Fold this protein.
Amino acid sequence: MAIEERLLITGGHPLEGDVYVSGGKNTAAAIIPATILSQTPCVIENLPDIEDLRVSAQMLRHLGAKVNWIPEQGVMEVDASSIDRTDVPLDLCRRMRASSYYIGALLARFGSAQVPMPGGCDIGQRPIDQHIKGMRALGAQVETRRGIVYATAEPLVGGDVFLDIATVGGTINVMLAASRAQGNTTIYNAAKEPHIVDLANFLNSMGCRVKGAGTDVIRVRGVQDLQSRRPYAVIPDQIETGTLMIAAAATHGDVTIHGCIPTHMEALTAKLLEMGARVEERDDSIRVRSLGGHRAVSFKTQVYPGFPTDLQQPMGALLCTATGTSTVVENIFESRFRYLAEIERMGARVRVIEQTAIIEGVPQLHAAAVEASDLRAGAALVVAALMAQGTTEISNVHFIDRGYEHLEAKLASLGAEITRACD
Ligand code: EPU
C-alpha cells in the first residue's frame, strides 16, 4: 500500500525573503513529448522535479527512447532515434493529462499512435474532441475504441483547423502534429497561453516554421527533418509564481520571487493591487508586500491573458479572509470549487451556485484536517493553512507533488512552519 503523506502547516508566520521559481510544469508537459519530433538528441533545461515529469520520462522510455534525467540539475536528455513502438500504456496515461500530447507527437514522427484517453486532475469534463478534430483536418484517421485513441496518417498534410474553443491542449497537440506535416497548417481560435509560445520557440529551434504563437492564429509550416541543435530551457512556471505571490500576500509578508516573467502575471498582479497588497515588478522578479487589511475583489477565470483558472483556487483561499464579499466565476472547468468546502471546515463563509462562488471574508481561519482534491486545490489549502490559527493537516499531498517542485522547502525557507508526515 502506498504511504499516505500529509503536510502539517502552522499558520500565522509572515513569509519573508527571496525565492526562485521553477521551470513551467505545463510547458515541460508539452516540450518533453515534442522531443520525439527531433532526429537528433534533445537537451531540455530548467525542468521542475515533479511527478508529472517522472511519468513523462517513463512514457518515453516505454516507447524505446533513451532518457537521461538529472532532476537536481533540471536537465533531461532525450534521444528519440531508438523509439520502436507507438503505444503508450494505460497506467501512465491515467496519471497525467498531458499524455494526450503523445498522440500528436507520435503521429507526426511515425504516422501512428495508440494512446489511452488522458487522466490528470478531476476538475470537470476534459474531452479531447478538438484535438481529434484538428488531427483529422490534417488527414489523420482517428478512432476511439474502449478508451484508446488510435490515430494513423500516411502522410499528415497541412490544413486549416478551426478550434471551437481556445483549448490549450488542443492547440499544442495540433501544433505537434503539424510540425512535420507536408505543407502549411493554420490554427484559428488558438490558445495564447505562455507555454504555447514556448512550444513554438522550441519547435522553431529545431527548424520548424511556426508563426503567430501568442495570438489567436498560429501558422505552422511542417518540416520533415527537425533537428535539435542546442539545449533548450523552458520558461518559468506562471502558476507557481502566482501561488507564491498569493502566499506572500496571504501571510502579510514581503517576498521577492526571482526568475519569473512579470508580464505573464498581469491579471493576478492587478487583483492583488486592487485588494491592497503592494506589487513591484522588475525585469525577472516580482516583490509582493502586504500589511493585511485586504479588500474583497471579484473576478472571472478566462483564457490568457485573463485571470487563469489554475490560480482561481489559491486566490479563492486568500479571499476567504478579505474584508467584504468576493464573487468568483469559474468559466473554464466546472468542478474547480471543491477546495472551498474544505476551507469552510476552517471557518470560511462560502456559497457556491453553479459556476459562481460567493465568499464572505472572515477575520481569521482556524486549523482543521483537510483533503486536497486536485493539484491547485492542494495549493489553495496550503494558502489557507498559512493564514490559519493552529496546525492544519493537509492530506492527498500527492496531488501537490504532481505540479509544485519542493513547495514545502521553498515555503520553509521563507519562514513558514511546514513539515511532511507519513502514516
Ligand atoms: N475542451 C473541450 N474539448 C477539447 C479540449 C478542451 O471541450 O478538445 C474544454 C475543456 O473541457 C475545458 C476547456 O476546453 O472546459 C479548456 O480546456 P483546455 O484544453 O484549455 O485545458 P487543458 O489543455 O486540458 C491545460 C492545463 C491545465 C489548465 C488549462 C487551462 C496542461 C497539462 N494542463 O489543460 O492545467 O487549467 O490548460 O489553462 O497544460 C493545472 O496545471 O493544474 C491544470 C489543470
